[in-house]
Model the fold of this input.
Amino acid sequence: MAERKTLTITEVKEIVRFGADNQGQKLPFRAKDGDTELDYFTFKRNLFDKIKQGETITADIETEQRGEYTNRKITQLYQDGQPVIGKGTGGYRGKSPEELEQQARLMILAYAKDLAVADKITLDDIPKTAERFYTWLKVGDKIVAPLVTAQTKTDEPTATTPTGKKVQNTAELKKLLMKHKIETHEAYEILSIGSFMDLVDLDKAWADIKKAKGIEH
Done:
């Protein structure tokens, strides 16, 4: 859950590019929270021009501990008490088609990497699997190519959601999350798990996620 704080920016670093074709952008910076100076970053490009050295900002911060490192991600800024990124139906208002496509591609790449970590595909298969995910996302309900290789395990639980759709395995659950633009870390928080491999009842997991996100179908 995000925590709102007032920060004074002391240093803005160079934009870091990542992901497929370097489409992803991350702006790292340092700022003081009271007397403590820490590292922060944001992926939201429509916040980049608001982050300037010497400025004092009010920000929503998501903190995540990864081993000995702490990630402090800025998800929203406020000016005169109003959010810089306004919320609207289906996402943030004001995002260009290019930004929405970039967001989708980055999410898809993350899911493909999750499959590799779970030994469902090889590392070499990550790019083509991500592209298949992207094609599926663009055409809607029809998957035009297999999403995993023959290495896919068959001993994962099968469950049926309340809407009658079958969740064959964790890969199917991830496709549903992708379709509704729900990031992996959001699902982990909703389900209070550390990994999708912790799930036993996929039907209940998807039902809990839909309830938390207000998804009707």
